[in-house]
Every structure is written in structure tokens, then in C-alpha cells.
Amino acid sequence: MAKHVPRGLSLEAARLYRETVTQNGLDEIADASSLTLLENAARALDRLRQAEAVVRKEGATVKDRFEQLRPHPMVARIDCEGQAVRQCLAGIVNHSAAARFKRGLDRVHGATAPEDDPWGRRAAGQEPV
């Protein structure tokens, strides 16, 4: 199902898309929600790189109407798009882990399904609430 890379992606984003599909296996990432997350991550990566190029060209600060230095508006965009990429990829990984757990691939010595511990407290050594 995920054989085709969405149109309009840069080479870097297309590589991210292909490698993510390959690393997670087509059977685990062939559902619509994971593919949508992956496409959103790839498009956010493109927007991130565009914003980084603007900041590289124009600088990280701009002067406001009072001639005071302020952060360039694209700096906030870089943070936002970086967070979007991370969240989308984390959603894919979490979905893949849940799928493997349901198939019995990750059941070793008290492992729990990700949806049983949504805040990751067990992984951090804390007792879930």
C-alpha cells in the first residue's frame, strides 16, 4: 500500500518516507493513519528546511519598528515544524510497537503495551498512576 512516495516532497523528505516504510515493514505501516502521519512528517520536514533556509539567509534576528532586535518569525516556525516531525514519527513508532505487542512479538518479561502506559512511566522507572 505504501509503495509510492507522495508527490511534491523534496529528496530528503522522500528518503525519510521510503526509509521509514522500509524500517517499519510495509505490513506494520500499511494502515491509513500511519501513512498519514508519515506523510505529515515528510511535509513538515520540507517546511522545516525552508524555514531554516530563510533564517540562514536573513539571520536569526530582525529589527522591529523601534529598532529593537527580535527573533526572526521563522525561528518560531522552525521550532513548530521540528516538533511536528518528532510527534508524527513518534506516533508511527508507538503505533508499530502496539501492533508488534498485539501480535506477541514484544512480550518479554512483563512488557506492557504502549496504550497501557500512555505517559511512558514504566519506561522511566516510575509506577503508573
Overall number of strands: 2
Number of helices: 4
Q: What portion of the residues fall into strands of 2 or more residues? A: under 5%
Order of strands, widest sheet: 1-2
Question: Main β-sheet: number of strands, strand sense, barrel status?
Answer: 2 strands, antiparallel
Q: Give me the oligomer status.
A: single chain
Binned, the helix content reads 55-70%
Number of domains: 1
Mean pLDDT: 82
Q: CA-to-CA gap between the ends?
A: 39 Å
Structure description:
This protein has 129 residues and is mainly alpha-helical. 58% of the residues lie in helices and 5% in strands. The protein has one domain (11-116). The protein contains 4 helices and 2 strands. The protein has a two-stranded antiparallel ribbon. Strand 1 and strand 2 (69-71) form a beta hairpin. Helix 3 packs antiparallel against helix 4.
Helix-strand layout with pairing:
Layout: H1 11-24, H2 26-29, H3 32-58, E1 61-63, E2 69-71, H4 73-102
Task: From the structure above, extract its key features.
129 residues, mainly alpha, two-stranded antiparallel sheet, 4 helices, elongated
In short:
With 129 residues, the protein is mostly helical.
